[in-house]
Specification:
The protein is of the alpha/beta class and 227 residues long. It is built from eight helices and seven strands, in the order E-H-E-E-H-E-H-H-E-E-E-H-H-H-H.
Length: 227
């Protein structure tokens, strides 16, 4: 699993305070790490790691959930242009094989390694530091609302995943992924009930498992009727 997070109360908008404290403590650059897509029924989980340049922090960075898609896209471009950024993608096969939590923790390690800096520390959104994490790290609950670096990572992860789901929606038009991004909306649930699931659905997730059982039962009844 991992190590528990610290419970921290912070300002209403993310700041660079936690990064500055960690930089003073370890003498290293600090990456913010966050993920997007732990809850959806379909598509990958995406994890981003971002080391902001303290002298070139884009204005307006906030928890991605608090921003419009247009603002997220604009900030994505600014963050990529001014920061050290790494992204890891946990595909559905990995999620189904090791579960969504472990796939997310794997993604955190992979994204951090992908920064390709000699040494760094990390602030991780959530309540766990992954075991065998390749650096000094601190988990912060609601870190995307407290730390600018974690908020930046939340934007990179969210925009990356949304783009992936829009691309998948062009191939799998029945599920409305261009709007629901794979989450279990009523629209998505109706489509699964009517059309079944596809290779990008997380078959280890309970709603998808139920849909598969229903489809298997329906097919079995049809076979019996044909006999």
């Amino acid at each position: 699993m991992g190590l528990p997070a610290e419970a921290i109360k912070g300002p209403s908008l993310p700041s660079f305070d936690f990064e500055a404290e960690m930089m003073d403590l370890h003498g290293l650059p600090v990456a913010g790490i966050d993920e997007a897509g732990r809850g959806p029924w379909a598509g990958p989980v995406v994890v981003a790691a971002v080391i902001l340049n303290p002298d070139r922090i884009p204005e307006g960075i906030n928890d991605s959930k608090m921003l419009t898609p247009e603002v997220r896209e604009a900030l994505y471009a600014e963050i990529v242009a001014t920061s050290c950024v790494s992204v890891s993608i946990g595909q559905v096969k990995r999620i189904d094989r090791i579960n969504i939590l472990q796939a997310s923790l794997w993604g955190m390690r992979a994204a951090f390694r992908g920064l390709e800096v000699p040494q760094a520390a990390a602030l991780i959104d959530g309540n766990l530091v992954p075991k065998r994490f390749p650096g000094k790290a601190r988990a912060i609950v609601s870190g995307d609302a407290l730390s600018l670096s974690v908020a930046a990572a939340s934007i990179i992860a969210k925009v990356t995943r949304d783009r992936i789901m829009v691309q998948l929606a062009r191939r799998y038009r029945r599920y409305g992924w261009e709007s629901n991004k794979g989450y279990g909306t009523p629209e998505h649930a109706r489509a699964v009930k009517k059309h079944g699931v596809c290779t990008h659905h997380r078959k280890s997730f309970a709603p998808v498992e139920r849909a598969l059982r229903i489809l298997a039962s329906r097919a079995e009844r049809m076979e019996i009727a044909e006999d």
